[in-house]
Each structure stands twice: as structure tokens, then as C-alpha cells.
Model the fold of this input.
Amino acid sequence: MKFLAMLRAAFAAVGAVVVRFVREGGRLVRRLVSIGAQPVPPAPFEIAEEALMETAPAAPKVGDEMEAIRQLAASLAAGSVRPEQVEKVPSNAVEWLRVMPRSMLCRVACASDSAIDRHLHGGPGVKGVLVFDRDAVLDYARPAPRRYLRDVMGEMGLMQSA
Done:
């Protein structure tokens, strides 16, 4: 008998919880779906006044510059650069991107605006990417001196001198 009473109490509790969830869900849906008063559209003279008040286009935003750098990096990695892409990026950034291997270019292409901006200004930026510094770019672009197999073997003591 106790078992049946406990079972009845459990079903009653579950039923009360289900009813409460349904009520709260209905309230939530009503709040989300309820449409208040629509905003009044601006009068035509207000639109014309705003158009007259606009000034010349502002300087490009930092986000636009970072987007141009990302686009150029992706194009360099793909091997299909267009002249208009190069024109949008500062010359020192073009040189920086030009010396990078494909793996670094892909990292720059996938980086966020803030990461690229920090990297360009000497902060902790994009990991695994060449430092944005003129000397680092020149050192990276300079070819390594050519080493021959006989020289390497000699350094390792594997080759006897004649």
C-alpha cells in the first residue's frame, strides 16, 4: 500500500511540474511574440536634413585596414594577388606579408582584427608569424648561406680530410 501511495505522490508531483513549465513557456512565448507600437518613420525633410549634414567620408577605419591585410595574406597564400588589393595595404605591411611562407600567411588570414593590430604594434599578436619589424623582414628575406654536404659531414666528423 505504501508503494502505491508513493507512486501516486510522484505522479502528482510530475504533473504539477509539467503544468508549471507549460505555463511559464506560454508566458515566455507571449513576451517574445507581443508586438508593441511600431516606430514612426522619419519625415522626408528629416531625411533630407540628415543627408545635407553628412560630411566627407571619414578616413578608413582600423577594421578596414585589418580586413585588407587579411585579404592580401589570403591572396598571397593562394597565389592570386590583384593590384587593387596591394594598393589598400600600407607598403611596409606588403613587404612584411611578401616574405612570409604560406603557413604564416594563412595564420594572418585567419587572425582577428585585434590580434593583427596588436601584432603590427609590437604587442602579443598572432603566434607563429614573423615579427612586424623592418630588420626582421630584411633578415627573413635574406637567403641563408649555402651549405654543402661535404662541409656538414666535415663539421660532424664523418669525413676525413685528404
The first helix runs from residue 2 to 33. Residues 55-60 have pLDDT under 50 and may be disordered. The CA atoms of residues 37 and 115 lie 43 Å apart.
